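Many introductory courses stop at the sequence. We go one step further.
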Amino acid sequence: MKLAFLGLGVMGYPMAGHLSRAGHDVTVFNRTAPKAAKWVEAFGGKSAATPAAAVRGAEIALMCVGNDDDVRAVITGADGVLSGLSAGTILVDHTTASAQVAREMHAAAAAKGVAFLDAPVSGGQAGAENGKLTIMVGGEPAVFARAEAVLATYARAVTLMGASGSGQLTKMVNQICIAGLVQALSEGINFASRAGLDPARVLDVISKGAAQSWQMESRGPTMIADKFDFGFAVDWMRKDLAICLAEARANGAALPGTALVDQFYARVQARGGGRWDTSSLIRLLRDGQ
């Protein structure tokens, strides 16, 4: 298929690469042109100078940018996606953003005859590089059916969650759960150390029982080793948790634990850890802060 991919960050770069390796004709756009040129050198395809130019002639356009404002700018701004896509095409947004902006972009796309899916992902950089992401999608079933095989190129699970905005709402649940898990894991490892136990041995044992989780198996060892210069950045997690907390205020859901962990992450940022992995929460406990 003729595809476009906009946004070549730590997630988008490998995701677009999987599409090219699968045989699709891919045109990319990135705000910093050298990154797009590097991608073309690595994977082939073409790059374009504007979102509109990148998506012109594409059957499906996919994007993964930073936040709500970036989504609006790339889609509806000057030389944006909607000024280049033809009626009958599909726009898929992989950005973790608000349900509100997903619904706004769905309406804006529909006015141009373009179908829209909000499709945030989970699995981190490793999931993107290995083509093992989990994708939660909001939109119409018929549109999802047309795009599903393309999304499966870099995913192990692609699931339609409901109407427009449902993908973003599901991703909020994902981030709420992760925040609590990482804080609990931090407390557990710190407790094990202060109790005189071997934390690595403790995790090896309890990961075979009911406490097992991806965070424990993938981040537990690096937390013990005090290594955080990789992974999903604290800055990004705070952006995501702000979206969760705003949605909770609107729908009446209580998120006391999430709000507390968000403040812990603010303290990590204040210590200069904005780019550390989210598992750096343990630093606050380890240092008595």
